[in-house]
Amino acid sequence: MSFDVASIRKDFPILGTRMRGKPLCYLDSAASAQKPQVVIDAISDFYSRHYANIHRGVYQLSADATRRYEEVRTRVARFIGAPDPREIVFVRNATEAINLVARSFGEAEIGKGDEIVLTAMEHHANIVPWQMLAERRGARLRVAEIHDDGTLDVSSLEGLLGPRTRLLAFAHVSNALGTLNPVREITAMARARGITTLVDGAQGVPHAKVDVSALGCDFYAFSGHKLFGPSGAGVLYGRLALLEAMPPFLGGGDMIERVSFKGTTYAPAPQRFEAGTPDIASVIGLGAAIDYLEGIGMERIQVYEQSLLAYATDQLAKVPGLRLVGTAREKAAVLSFVLEGVHPHDIGTVLDGEGIAIRAGHHCAQPLMERLGLPATARAPLAFYNTTDEIDRLVAALDKTRALFA
Ligand code: PMP
Fold it and tell me: Would the CATH topology of 5-30+297-400 be identical to that of 40-294?
């Protein structure tokens, strides 16, 4: 079955707009993805006809809003292969999901002299919360090496897993390199040693079908806004037995069972971790995004993106002086590159003049940039609404950049 990208693009109103007088060429979906009309409509419809606070009202509007919100929990669970909807905690984004685990699981389970293992390709969101925890608890961070092509050195990682390792946290897919990590192999190594695993799935879920049960991880974190949903709603998946044993993260309304000045008892998971009024409409929008993606099929999205990646890799190789950063055999559709003699920010500026939106910088992965000996890269991730024509425009604009700076 062919992939009708022209018709898919019509689902995203912003893709029909112009930027600097040219059709917008959006190549920054790894930072945040664009939204299909069905997501925008679901939010508008919810505010127009169904809005009320959830879990509180005795009246029908609130009961209905609660049902819609909780239905999304069930859909998210199914979408990522979680056996039980109670394993889905709604948060703001991947960053908050990771901080929740660092605060809640971390404070309870990680103590002086314990070790937390990360990899050299992590986003700051999967470094800083662990660093803060390690400082508070007197624990130690250990960092697995990567190879020059951007693949993880799995044997370096295995060598770090020891009797003091309490947690192993790593990216499903690197946002700066595209590297797809061998999650099952890594979680199996950890499980054999009784080590808890957290997978940062911020760049995993948008590109392929994710099944957390098959991946074998204990926690999986992602952001709705990178999954073509609204900003403000993200997900922490946690194995139920772990979530049930974890103390609360934030305290307040909605997360309690009974409050008195003598003391408070807490609601069971996942409510225990959802203090206060959540971003209800964004959760509804995330549900619409998941329905939309399932309508297309994540497997088809993956096949299309991989063909786009192969095309883009070939075309970029023809640009003199361009070097791709991150050439792992197993990778998602992320193109990170440097161009000889041109600073990545200058590439971004010239491309902007052509209506092409890319990102230039350290991509919130400064330790990775240091490891690679680069101050920054230009990055063009591909989503299923991107086209070979857009890649041709990117290549032409890079040729223009070279001509300007050479
Ligand atoms: N992890 C990875 C791999 C990411 O790419 C990002 C976003 N760039 C994050 C975590 C953080 O996501 P958010 O800002 O939505 O919390």
Answer: no
114 lines ligand 1 (CB under 6 A): no
**pTM confidence score:** 0.98
In this prediction, residue 372 carries a pLDDT of 96
Query: Which segments of 80-169 does DSSP mark as H helices, in order?
Result: 94-109, 128-137, 154-160
The whole-angstrom separation of Cα 29 and Cα 359 is 10
Give residue 203 CA to ligand 1 midpoint distance, Å. Answer: 7
Q: What is the pLDDT of residues 301-357, one digit of tens each?
A: 999 999 999 999 999 999 999 999 999 999 999 999 999 999 999 999 999 999 999
**Interval between CA 124 and ligand 1 midpoint (Å):** 8
Q: How far, in Å, from the CA of 58 to the mean position of ligand 1?
A: 37
Counting as low any pLDDT under 50, the low residues of the chain are none
Give how far the C-alpha of residue 23 lies from the chain's centroid of Cα atoms, to the nearest Å: 27
| Residue 283 pLDDT | 98
Cα 49 to Cα 44, 289, 318: the distances in Å are 8, 19, 53
CATH numeric code, 40-294: 3.40.640.10
Domain boundaries, the chain: 5-30+297-400, 40-294
Q: 125 in ligand 1 pocket by Cβ < 6 Å?
A: yes
Q: Is the CB of residue 203 below 6 angstroms from any atom belonging to ligand 1?
A: yes
The arrangement of secondary structure in 5-30+297-400, i.e. its CATH architecture, is Alpha-Beta Complex (3.90)
The verdict on the CB of residue 364 being under 6 Å from ligand 1 is: yes
